[in-house]
């Protein structure tokens, strides 16, 4: 829908949102009306260069042609059915994903947080089935992010932040260990522990990749204690880090993995994949979802995943990610440019990330800020060197403005 067709002015539309919507987001002051490839267009036709990617979702590009065609095609046949008849998109997608990432089974969900709920439930059920009712405890990482529903929220290792504060007791059965610290994870294992769950690269936590030895060490620790290794690949999955799944880059296979975001190429879908042994924990009635496996979402996901694999967008993610980090590291005030593939964090020596984000927005480039020290770039995986050069030019200007403002405020205080 376009603004023009509503007869509203831009301000009237924004006022409507402010009046009627529960707002937990700090809105950017433009109306996103259209999108194509690396660009989002506002109601006046201004083109924003997109290093946000719908929060790491639009990996094959905004409104990727193949994804759009698959949605249109599926719309003419069936949109949604209950989960008892077989459907073609569910079947094709299941085989494509399992074959590509070396997993045996998939359970469809609708979002990242639900994919994690599914994975947590599967692990706990596996623990209880195999070792008795007290085997349900899961260790996750401090500073992790796993989602906003109760299980995923409790799994998120950020007590004392807005994510968990004020919601009463968290779901029991989780403890948090320091990311990239194998000894700390080992010290948290008890006779109740059934699994360790991590993001291969902590995204919302500031863009911190797991060290190779850490991931290998966790695999060994899990094997030694009959525990499951669970990877939350909601953000890292489907090409983002330079391989189809990040664990394939580490060459360390988890027992189960969650995914969402890029999987649907813009349509809401998530999933948990697992080995046969672990997936057997779910039998009739133990888990379900009305919309999980939605025909339209599965058709879009089949196109999205196929596009990422067929065009080898993982390779572009790796190459462009390396290039972006090198260029970012040359900018003033950059303490560290880090990440894996096109999940890139830029940390400053002064707290300017929010102002840099706004400075980029004013110059029609979209990036994210994590806290006030780190900007995160998670563009579609089709990004080019030329577009990265533009980002760097604009960030240089935004950093200069933000630093000037910071020092002026510092002098005044
Ligand atoms: C690693 C990770 N897990 C889970 C989630 C939650 O996904 P969703 O917002 O689709 O529920 C996110 C969202 O950013 C994420 O980055």
Could you explain the architecture of this structure?
With 413 residues, the chain is α/β, with parallel strands linked by helices. Helix 6 links the parallel strand 5 and strand 6. Helix 12 runs parallel beside helix 14. The protein has a 7-stranded mixed sheet, with helices on both faces. It is globular and about 60 Å long. The longest helix has 28 residues. It has a domain of 246 residues: Aspartate Aminotransferase, domain 2 (3-Layer(aba) Sandwich). Bound molecules: pyridoxal-5'-phosphate. The site of pyridoxal-5'-phosphate has 15 residues, from helix 5.
List the helices and strands and how they pair.
Layout: H1 10-20, E1 34-36, E2 39-41, E3 47-50, H2 53-56, H3 65-75, H4 88-101, E4 105-109, H5 112-131, E5 137-141, H6 150-155, E6 174-177, H7 182-187, E7 193-198, E8 201-202, E9 208-209, H8 212-224, E10 228-232, H9 246-250, E11 256-259, E12 270-274, H10 276-279, H11 295-310, H12 313-329, E13 334-340, E14 343-348, H13 353-362, E15 365-366, E16 368-370, E17 374-377, H14 385-412
Parallel strand pairs: 3-15, 5-6, 5-7, 7-10, 10-11
Antiparallel strand pairs: 1-2, 2-3, 4-12, 8-9, 11-12, 13-14, 14-17, 16-17
Helix pairs in contact: 3-11, 4-11, 12-14, 13-14
The structure holds pyridoxal-5'-phosphate.
Bound molecules: pyridoxal-5'-phosphate
Helix content range: 25-40%
CATH superfamily of the domain at 65-310: Type I PLP-dependent aspartate aminotransferase-like (Major domain)
Strand numbers in spatial order across the main sheet: 4-12-11-10-7-5-6
Number of strands: 17
